[in-house]
């Protein structure tokens, strides 16, 4: 595997890690706002029911709260995770499977945008547009990979 590939993976993982930590920190403000628990703790409600205490809040709910009210770092986290998945798909899938992967991945993003489209928060609206843009970008990328002979996936050698 080339140094270009591993450097992209490394930078992607660093960006994902830092933005995840910042998102988690911003989302921890949920603990200070018990009136928001009813609206921002879907994972805790699945695990513990509707009557929650501060100790029962699941860490994933911090990301939900951060995405709703401070969407900058969750947005970068989503973009870096998507970039990493596209890189891994490009590396390990053959040409036809990769275009199908990009198309399905784009559909998942569009479905996620439809799922949160009725969000009353500014962060939710930002994420809707982010999901739509990433989904459309993945569709365009799949189309380009399918149509352009210069973008064909080369067979990678197993040499290290």
Describe the structure.
- This protein has helices spanning 3-27, 37-40, 42-48, 60-69, 72-92, 95-115, 122-147.
- With 160 residues, it is an all-alpha fold.
Runs with pLDDT <50, length 5+? Answer: none
Q: Structural class of the helices, strands and pairings?
A: mainly alpha
The major sheet is characterized as: none
Strand content: under 5%
Number of helices: 7
Total number of strands: 0
What's the order of the H and E elements? Answer: HHHHHHH
Identify the overall geometry: elongated
Mean pLDDT: 89
Give the helix level as a range of percent.
over 70%
What Rg, in angstroms, do the CA atoms define?
Answer: 19 Å
**C-alpha termini separation:** 6 Å
Task: List its traits.
mainly alpha; single chain
In short:
This protein is mainly alpha-helical and 160 residues long.
């Amino acid at each position: 595997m080339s140094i270009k590939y591993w450097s992209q993976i490394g930078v992607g993982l660093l960006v994902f890690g830092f933005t995840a930590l910042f998102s988690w920190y911003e989302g921890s403000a949920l603990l200070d706002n018990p009136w928001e628990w009813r609206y921002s703790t879907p994972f805790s409600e699945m695990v513990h029911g509707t009557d929650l205490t501060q100790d029962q809040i699941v860490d994933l709910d911090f990301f939900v709260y951060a995405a709703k009210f401070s969407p900058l770092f969750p947005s970068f986290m989503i973009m870096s995770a998507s970039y990493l998945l596209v890189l891994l798909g490009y590396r390990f899938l053959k040409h036809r499977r990769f275009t199908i992967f990009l198309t399905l991945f784009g559909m998942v993003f569009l479905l996620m945008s439809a799922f949160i489209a009725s969000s009353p928060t500014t962060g939710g609206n930002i994420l809707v547009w982010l999901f739509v843009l990433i989904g459309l970008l993945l569709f365009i990328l799949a189309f380009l990979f399918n149509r352009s002979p210069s973008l064909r996936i080369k067979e990678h050698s197993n040499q290290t």
